[in-house]
Amino acid sequence: MRFYLSNEKLDNEIVEIKQKIKLSMNGVVADQMKESGIRYKQNFGVSVVRLREIAAEYSPDTDLAKRLWMSGIREAMILSTLLQPAGEMTQKDAKLLILEMDNSELVEQSTMNLLRKLSFAKDLVLDCMNSEEKWVIMTCFMLAVRVYTDFNTEELMKIVDAAVMNASNPEVNIYKTAALCLGRFCRRDPGIRDYVELALDNRLTGNTIAERYVLEEVKNEILFLSDL
User: Fold this and answer.
1) Burial class (CB within 10 angstroms; exposed 0-12, middle 13-18, buried 19+) of 115
2) Domain residue spans in the chain?
3) What is the per-residue pLDDT for 6?
4) What angle in degrees, to the nearest 10, is found between the helix axes of 8-23 and 48-55?
5) Does domain 127-228 have CATH number 1.25.10.10?
6) Contacts 24+ apart (CB under 8 A), 217-223
7) What are 127-182's pLDDT values in tens digits?
């Protein structure tokens, strides 16, 4: 458990933010998210567009971002990823944040809003790609999609191997992000595209829902690229 010293300015900002969240709440959306398996300590169903508007009203601040994240409230946690200055985040803090994520929305929002902007983003991918933790490996592939141009050929091949290995994983969030990652890597250059195709041909049989999904998604991406 983390504790923070009282800070009147930040305390007031958090009160304001929570009030804005409650005024923008949408109970129907919150219920739909819960039914689909996306769960938080508290969820007001506020749209991401509205959360971006709220974030624009405040200056990025590490202490504010950490307090918002620790609240466990969906909207506050997403705002945290929008208000955390990328240049002030350490690798240790980033790894802790990854370990604390436990649903697909947080993975998507954190990679898009924050993790991809970190100077060590590609190092996070390489550190996480062999994890056995569901949300960690999903974060790895989602982040790889956003920073794939930063990797050298050898690094890309290692991530391709990890993604192909997870293409047989029955967990839908994992095999879908693995497919997205493999498809995006095909855009890098013809050599990587050939490596992806060969890896899929050699290691996947298409005998499971997961493998069929990955093969179809990557095939469609390659066909799309061939038409450009």
Assistant:
1) buried
2) 127-228
3) 67
4) 150
5) yes
6) 217/179, 217/180, 217/182, 217/183, 218/179, 218/182, 218/183, 218/186, 220/183, 221/182, 221/183, 221/184, 221/186, 221/187, 222/183, 222/186, 222/193, 222/197
7) 999 898 999 999 999 999 999 999 999 999 999 999 999 999 999 999 999 999 99
